[in-house]
Amino acid sequence: MVERLIADQLSKKYDSVMVLEPASFILNAGEITILAGPNGSGKTTLLSCLSGLVHPSSGTVTVCGYDLYRDEVEVRRRMVYVPDVPRFYLELTAWEHLRFIALANNCAAGFEQRAGDLLTKLGLWEARDLFPHHFSRGMRLKLGLALALIRPFEALLLDEPTSALDVEGVEILISELRRLRETGAAILLSTHDTDLIEKLGDRRISIRQGSIEVT
Predict the structure, then answer these.
(1) Which of 5, 113, 119, 13 is nearest to 60 (CA)?
(2) Distances in Å between the alpha carbon of 81 and those of 17, 21, 101?
(3) Contacts of 9 (CB under 8 A, 6+ apart)
(4) Residue 40, pLDDT score
(5) Based on the domain organization, do 10 and 56 belong to the same domain?
(6) Do the strands 203-208 and 66-67 form a parallel or antiparallel pair, or are they unpaired?
(7) Range of the domain at 97
């Protein structure tokens, strides 16, 4: 197995409260790992540490051989994080967001076709010239997924991606994640959706009160 992401003794403490106990695990290429646990268990804290949004209290994260905290630029080229509430620039339309991400990641070749296909598949084509702050939560989540999929990556982190999707949106997501798994991406998927877990989960990370178990 090719190791895409390695977390080694990762922990997080806020003041004197340990919200994430030290944990080590690996995300392998071509695997979808489910991150499961009740609300408030520490899933989002773990994803925030893995993505670099929050600095852990201890431990390291390595992505494709690069240390997240020393080689952040190299890691950002290889890993994408889609939070449960994506944030967008107020002054950019949906289409302009996609173009910006493509240019920033040196993948502008064939952009028009790829972006058009993505937005059509996700049901956002008619909204391409609108500003995301006018979107419903489900539409914002779909645009967040599109921004991830428009660029190349080797590791993908998803926080509750089906929380605001309709049935059709969930089926599209499942299809895309299966396709990405075949390309060799390592995917960490935080979800409560039992159907999604059964259909996609190759491995499982369970978290409860900040304590992690890998199965």
Answers:
(1) 5
(2) 26, 22, 13
(3) 22, 23, 24, 58, 59, 60
(4) 86
(5) yes
(6) unpaired
(7) 93-152
**Bridge partners of 82?**
158
Minimum mean pLDDT range among 57-66, 87-96, 122-131, 163-172: 163-172
Q: Token pair 């290429």 is at which residue?
A: 29
End-to-end CA gap in the chain: 16
What CATH number does residue 25 fall under?
3.40.50.300
Q: Are 80 and 53 in contact (CB under 8 A)?
A: no
What six digits make up the tokens of 121? 């598949």
pLDDT value at residue 196: 86
Distance separating alpha carbons of residues 35 and 32, to the nearest angstrom: 10
4/184 Cα distance (integer angstroms): 9
pLDDT band at 164 (very low <50, low <70, confident <90, very high): confident
Say whether 212 sits in a helix, a strand or coil. strand
- Is residue 84 one of the residues assigned to a domain? no
